[in-house]
Amino acid sequence: MSSNEWPLWEVFIRSKQGLSHKHVGSLRAADAENAINNARDVYTRRSEGISIWVVESKLISASDPKEADSLFDPADTKIYRHPTFYEVPDGVLHM
Amino acid sequence: MKDINIEEKEREFQAKIDADIKIEPNDWMPAEYRKTLIRQISQHAHSEVVGMLPEGNWITRAPNLRRKAVLLAKVQDEAGHGLYLYSAAETLGSDREASIDDMHAGIAKYSSIFNYPTLSWADMGMIGWLVDGAAISNQVPLCRCSYGPYARAMVRVCKEESFHQRQGYEIATTLANGTPEQKAMAQESFNRWWWPALMMFGPTDAASKHSALSMKWKIKRVSNDELRQQFVNVTVPQAELIGLTIPDPDLNWNEEKQGYDFGTINWEEFNQVVQGNGPCNKERLDARRQAKENGMWVREAALAHAEKRKAKMAS
Ligand SMILES: [Fe+2]
Ligand SMILES: [Fe+2]
Questions:
Q1: Which ligand minimizes its atom distance to the CA of B71?
Q2: Which among B76, B87, B306 has CB closest to A25?
Q3: B26 touches chain A (CB under 8 A)
Q4: A35, A27 in Cβ contact below 8 A?
């Protein structure tokens, strides 16, 4: 990698008021301000957003896909966390 | 012990692919899958970027302000497509800078179609209609590609491509319905772009060396010949509708296969252009190299500016 390559940024866009920011992709930029301006040009050319977040890719910590089983399996067995687990007599309303 | 491990991983990987579960950047994948994707995605990215040059040639000479604004927007989209794709390749550990330098050195390829010159305004019509049209046929199945970041980039690209083809067909239609000179210009341009557009789908299935594995891995989902046939089937009626003649004496509707039979592609020409001997190969690479060299000061200045600001904020 040449030393004058700009760092990599991840871009998150809020498409409209009331929705959360969503990851849309990445780009390279010299700094945060530059990243926001580039994200405006690359990811919102057709009014896809009203707000942009950028974060340098290297600052993101991610869970390890190899550990996905041990991380997420415990949730699979706890079906009583879902409303469909419970039996409710016929005729009960508003529940 | 290690080999058994890899075999097991490969089996799990293929099972995921067969179940249409997408592969994401940090998931385990065979080295060859990664390599194939990096090659394909970076070639695709280079094509988007080099693809700006033939149309860039006509921006300042667009016949009116509407056409100029449209062409600018279209070319800007292609720059964006290049960026989405370089980012997708980077998720696989590809070094963006090195892959661009490989293209500049003639080691990495880009779509051969962009090595043809744009000689008249009608070419802007033919590129949008035929070249973007063929690109769309190739890209729609890629939206279902097994590699998540590539598939997602393709969804974005396809959404944006739909106006590219329409604006091109609009230009072709306007010329074809114009004065006899304009109509002749459209036909002349169509004659030059038709065959290279068919070559965009790549070698025949029989001659295509990467296809079988790519199909198994669901990187590629429809074969070159099938895509080419679909393209001919939809494009011939579009040409007839605006009174343009397909430059192929062997073109015939085949009732049995419910598709057109068409003449043999000049594969010798295709190979020559791929090998670097097309009409504009040198010009395109020179333009890209110059763009990098002449733009280097912007990169350096932006980095210096960012450093300075950081230092100021810290003090
Ligand atoms: Fe494109
Ligand atoms: Fe396009």
A1: 2
A2: B87
A3: yes
A4: yes
